[in-house]
Amino acid sequence: MSAETVNAVVDLIHPEPTSFFRKYVWSYDHKVVAKQYLWTSLLFMTLGGSLAMLLRWQIAYPNQPVPFWGMLLKGHFVFDASGAISPDGYLQLTTMHGLIMVFFVIIPLIVSAFGNFLIPLHIGARDVAFPVLNALSYWLYLPAGLLMIASFFMVKGAGEAGWTGYPPLSDVAGAVAPVWGMNLVLIALFLAGFSSILGGINFLTTVIRMRAPGMTWSRLPLTTWAQFITAIFQVLATPMLAAAGAMLFFDRVFHTSFFLPHGLVIGQSEPVNTGGGYPLLWQHIFWFYAHPAVYILILPSMGFASDILAAFSRKPVFGYRAMVISLVAIMGLGFVVWGHHMFVSGLNPIMGMAFMVSTVFIALPSGVKVFNWMGTLWGGAIRLEPPMLYAISFVSMFIIGGLSGIFMAASPVDIYIHDTYFIIAHFHYVVFGATLFAVFAATTYWFPKMFGRMMNRKLCYLHWGLTFLFFNMAFFPMHFLGEAGHMRRLMTSTGYEFLNPMAPWNEFITLSAFALGLSQIVFTYNFIYSVFFGDPAPANPWESATLEWTVPATVPHYNFKVIPTVYRGPHEYSSPEAAPADWIAQNAPPKGAAH
Amino acid sequence: MSDAAEHHVTLSPAFHKDRRAMRLLGIWLFLGSEVMFFTAFFGAYIVARSAAPVSVVMPLEKLWGALNTVVLITSSLTMALAVLYSKKGDRDRTGRYLALTFLLACCFLVVKAIEYTHHFQDGNFPSHDIFFGFYFLLTGFHGLHVLGGMITLGILWWRNRRGDFNKDYNDPIEIAGLYWHFVDLVWIFLFPALYLL
Predict the structure, then answer these.
(1) Do A255 and B127 count as a contact with CB atoms less than 8 A apart?
(2) Which site in A148, A434, A519, B118 is 20 to 30 Å from A123, CA atoms measured?
(3) Burial status of residue A18 (CB atoms within 10 A of its CB: 0-12, 13-18, 19 or more)
(4) Chain B residues inside the 8 Å CB shell of A208
(5) What is the number of CB-based contacts under 8 A between chain A and chain B?
(6) In a domain, B1, yes or no
(7) Does domain A25-260+274-578 match CATH 1.10.3110.10?
C-alpha cells in the first residue's frame, strides 16, 4: 500500500481488518458500526417498551401489585413494598421510557444505524468521511446508554421529572427528588449528544464530498437527502441540549440558580439555592433543541418511505424536486416553531401567536410530502411485499399523527389539550405509527443487503397485522381520553371524579398495549432467526434501482469493486429506456453507449 | 519516519487536496456546533442581565481580563504563524510557534486560576448569585475548551518533532489553528460581556 500513489479520496481501499477486536468491536467499517448501533438500539427498545408496559399496568390497575415482576423486585427500583408501582417509580417510568425511546432507540436506529449503513452505499463511496470518528460515535453512545440504566440503581432511582426535565422539579436534587439518578441521566445525554453531533458532521461531510462521479444532488435517493437534512439538525440543534443540560447540572451540583427563582421553598425547608433564575429559560433552551429533535425522529423515516414506495410501485417518486424542497423547508421552519410546546407556560401571548403561525406553516411541506407519497402509489404496479405494507402504514398513520398536530398548533385549542393524552396520542402516532413502521419497512427492505439473507415473509405479514391492529387499538382511544381532559403523567386517574367514565378506556388501552408488546416477539424471532438461518438472499431481491443493490448480497469490506459512475436518477422504474425490463440501475450506462 | 508518516507521504498531492477539503469541512461543521453551544449560554446570560437592575456590575478585576485578552490574541497570532510555517515545510519554526501558543495558553489558564482563587477567597462561589453562576459557567466551559486545545497543541508539537508534517500534509495543524481561533473568538465575546458591560 505504501508504494502506491492513490489519487482520488473516494477510491482509497483501507486494508480489511483481521483481528476480532478490529472487525467487530473498534471497527472503521461503516457497515459494522451500523450493525453495532442496530443491535444496541433494538436491545434498548426492549427495555423502553418494558418500562411502558409497567406504567400501563399502573394506569389500568391502580396500585395493584405487578404480576411476576412486582413479586420479584418488590421494594426495589420502581416497585413499592407490596410490588405495585410507587409514585416516584411511576414518574421514573414515564421519564425513562421517554428518554430511552427518543435518545437511545429511535435516533440511533434511524440515523446512526440505517444512515451509517446506507449513506456510503447510496452515494457510491467506500465509507464515511471520518471512519475513526464513526467508531468513536458508537463508543460514546454505548456508555451513555449504560449510564441511563445505571441511574435506576442509584439511591432514590432514576430521573423523574419527565423526559422534558422541567425545573424546578428536575433541579431540586436531594430535597424530594433523585440525586445521582438524574445527574447520571444528564451526563448520559451529554455523551449521547456529543456522539450525535460527531455523527452529523460525518454524514454531512460524506454526502457533500464523497459522492461518486455522476451522483449529482438531484440523483440522490431520498433516503440520503433526508439523512442529510437530519444531520444539519443534529449538528446545529443538539449543542443547545448540551448547554441546557450543563446548566441544569450546574444547578444541581454546584448549586447555581439558572432555573430557580428567588425564594422557592419545598415544604418547610430553607429556600432552594440563592435564586434569581428563570424556570422558563430551561423550557426555551430545551425546546429549541427538542423541537428539531422531533424532526430528527421523522425525517429519515420519510426518506425510507419515499424510496420504498417508489420501488414497490414501480414508479419514480411523484415530485422528487418538491420532496427535496419540502425537506429543506422543514429544516428551515423547524428552528422557529419551538414555542408551540410552551403555549401554556406563561409565554407572552404575542410570541404564542408568532409560534402558532410558524407551526401551521410547517404543516405545509409535510402535507406536500403526504400528497406526493399518494401520487407515487397512484397508478403504480403495486407489489405488496412486507416493506411496502409497512411503508403504506407509515403514510396512513403519519396522516393521523400529523392531523392531530394541527389541533395543537392552534394555541386556543392547545390550552385545553396541552399535557393531556391527546398529546401522547399525537406523538405516539408520529413516532411509533409513522417512524417505527418505517423502521420495520426499512429493516425488512434492507435486511437482505445487511445480512445476506431474507426475512421470513409470512412472519413479516403476521407481525404487520398484529402490530397495526394493536397499535391503533392502544393509541387511537388516547385521543378521546385527551379530549375528556385526562392529564399526562397521571399515576391514578381514580382520584378524579370527572375521569371515572374514562376508566374502561384505560383498561382497554393497557390490554391492547400488552398485546402490542407481545406481538413484537414475532418480529424479534423473525429478525434473529433470519440473521443466522434465513434463506440466502440474491443481490437485488426487490429489483431496486439504487446503488446498494449493485453490490453482492454480502457486501464486501470495500463496498464497490470499482467506484460506479452514475447516469440517472434513483427511481428509474417503468422507464421506457429500460424496456423490456421495468427498471434500470443508476449506474447502468445509457443504452447504445459504448461500454 | 513513522508508518503513519510514510503512509501519508506516499499518497499523492491530489489525494491530500481532496482529503484536506473534507477535513476542513469537518472542522468548520464542528465549529458551527460549538457556536450553537456557546450561543445558548450567551443568550441565557443576556436574558438574565437584561432583567436585572441597571446598576448591576460584575465585581471582576478588569486588569486580569484585559491581560488574558492580550495573551489569547497573541496566541492566535503565534498559531497562525505555526500554520504558515507548516505550509512552508519549515519544521523548526512550526515547532517553535506551536510551543509558544501552548505556553501562552498556559498563561491564560494560570491567570484564570488566580482569578478563581480570588473569587473563592471572597466567597464568590458559583452558588453566590446568578451572575457568578454565569461567570463560572461561561469561563469554565471556555477554559475547558482552552485545555482541550492545549492538549491538541501538545500532541501536534510532538508529531511535528517526529516529522509527520510536510508541505503537502499539514492539515492537523491548520485544523487546530481554526479551532484555536474559535476559542479566541469566544473569549473576545466573553471579555466585554462579563468584564466590561
Answers:
(1) yes
(2) A434
(3) exposed
(4) 25
(5) 130
(6) no
(7) no
